[in-house]
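pls design
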């Protein structure tokens, strides 16, 4: 994981990444993490990629993840955006120039020791030595 504390009360974080998965279940993404979390990610499913938004309430206490958005992706180069408004209300967007909203707003709650952060992550469902890769080209943090 690569973590960044919220830099301001209101901001927008946009990233461009290229994901090269190897096996089903390979996944990388961009998450708002704290007591609750929500993330946007491409995940390898069959012959393609799906962009998805997953949310989890009460994560520290074992809350269950719930997929709140899913859409097929035509390219392995993807743009994601997280907009944070006053009160730590976050919205997730994808799809390059137009940046479509992907799910309802999410309220970030600071974690016990870490506060609220935006994070890059990489996961896979199976253990293998034949791993894929992600190239995070850039991340830009700007005022809303």
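designed seq:
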């Amino acid at each position: 994981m690569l973590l960044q504390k919220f830099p301001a009360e209101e901001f927008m974080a946009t990233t461009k990444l290229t994901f090269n998965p190897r096996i089903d279940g390979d996944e990388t993404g961009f998450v708002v993490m704290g007591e609750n979390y929500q993330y946007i990610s491409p995940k390898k499913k069959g012959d393609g990629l799906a962009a998805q938004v997953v949310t989890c309430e009460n994560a520290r206490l074992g809350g269950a993840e719930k997929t709140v958005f899913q859409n097929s992706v035509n390219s392995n180069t993807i743009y994601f955006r997280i907009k944070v408004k006053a009160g730590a209300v976050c919205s997730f967007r994808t799809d390059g120039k137009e940046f479509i909203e992907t799910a309802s707003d999410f309220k970030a709650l600071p974690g016990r020791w870490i506060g609220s952060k935006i994070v890059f992550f990489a996961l896979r469902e199976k253990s293998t030595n034949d791993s894929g890769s992600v190239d995070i080209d850039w991340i830009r943090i700007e005022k809303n």
